Amino acid sequence: MIAIRLPLFAVLAWPLDLGSFVTQHQSTNFRAAANRTADTLSVPPLFVNQSSLPHTVEVTITAAPTRLSLVPGSTTEVYAYNGRIPGPTLDVHEGDKLIVHFRNELPEPSTIHWHGIHLPASQDGSPLDPVAAGATHDYVFTIKAGTSGTYWYHPHLHRRTGYQIAKGLFGAFVVRAPDDPLPASLPDRVLILTDNRFGPDGSLDFPDPRSIEGQIDEENGREGNVVFVNGQVMPKITIRSGEVQRWRVINASAARIYRLAIPGQTLLHVGDDGGLFERPVEAKEILLANSERVELLVRGTAPPGTRTTLQTLPYDRYAPQTRPKDWNVTRDLLSLQYADAKPVAPIALPVGLRHIPVLDTANATATRVMSLGQGFINGRIMDMSRVDVSARIGATEIWQIENLVGMDHPFHLHGFHFQVLDRNGVPEPYRSWKDVVNVPKHETVRFIVHYEDFPGKWMFHCHILDHEDMGMMGILELN
Ligand code: C2O
Ligand code: CU
Prior knowledge:
Layout lengths: L8 E2 L45 E13 L7 E6 L8 E4 L3 E8 L8 E3 L20 E7 L6 E6 L6 H6 L4 E6 L11 E9 L15 H9 L5 E4 L6 E4 L4 E8 L6 E4 L5 E6 L2 E9 L2 E3 L4 E7 L7 E6 L18 E8 L10 E2 L15 E7 L16 E3 L4 E8 L5 E5 L4 E6 L2 E2 L8 E4 L4 E7 L5 E7 L2 H5 L3 E6 L1
Parallel strand pairs: 2-5, 4-9, 10-13, 12-20, 22-24, 23-31
Antiparallel strand pairs: 1-21, 2-3, 5-7, 6-8, 8-9, 10-11, 13-18, 14-17, 14-19, 15-16, 15-18, 19-20, 24-29, 25-28, 25-30, 26-27, 26-29, 30-31
The structure holds CU-O-CU linkage and copper (II) ion (CU).
Copper (II) ion binds next to loops.
């Protein structure tokens, strides 16, 4: 896939509630704009690059137990990457070579999986390649051209992924394009959404799997009543009236699906898992299933001094028997405070973002039907020594994911981006690159994928972590 920069620049029309506010000053350096210091959102630091070679990013990631304060008034035994939650952000460019020295100082085996990154199977950090407790391991791979977007990294040890992520192991992974069509002056923020559940002493609540609570967690996926953005509860972001900010939102929750909205504002949805769309799409709300990412442009359409909130609206992904009582509650995630300052003039945004080539169904040589049961794919659970699907490098295939049960299952394929063709027979309105797609209860989603390179074994699975850990996963072998 080649990103072609379209020469179509124009001031993008948006519903202007701003009216007469928009006038005089255009700030050219928003990062330095006044009031930014009033943000309480913590931004995960970037890794220190240990290499001085060009186009080379060499970092050390240590996973280790530690104690951090996650909720006020207590500390919690956690696992952390480089001592913090979320882990530092990997911020790289297309074409960069990554060398990651992973030190596993956990009391158990682990891996680092580079969720959504197109790389050799041996570097994928899949359950097939555990790194023993106390061991070190190097991951080495090169970021492919055309794959700029928002990704994340997390452990992927079989049966322990949910536990290790809940303990604190996750971080953002941003890939930048040399020809990114969005203005570089836009504040560019990573927002990682997670939730967790605590005991009164601040310890993480993991019920005995044989208890009722444990079984409800296995069924629903483990949800927590405390919702975090970058590890913080209800942080604050400031915005100027008229300003535009670029938000990259990552759902790193085990099971919670977010239905994102900012009351009174229309969002501009510009990209998802595998980077930018061909053109922006106006959206009142955005559904973000587990492990999905979106890129949004948030436009400061309200008057100075006002305040609004990024919320998650109720979304019924549940089976009725185990649906939590408070499922229909709207939750506040983040407060958006308008600076008490003169509005800035709207910045010109491109109408065209990039070209996304069509994967043509006429080239598909097979349709893979995946029937999702509760914890099963095609009636089976994961067997690390079994190959569920074999295909040839160079093939283009359609996957038809049928959800047979009354609960949503977000379906993820490792290593390759795909294009959703249709959802329940309704053609996808626009093309995008994805690596996970939510399959709502009793619905069918079809996508098309081209295995351009990289032989080996690739996982596909439900990204509700409890389901994945119970074996709702299979293996695609390419040769
Ligand atoms: Cu986010 Cu198989 O992974
Ligand atoms: Cu599932």
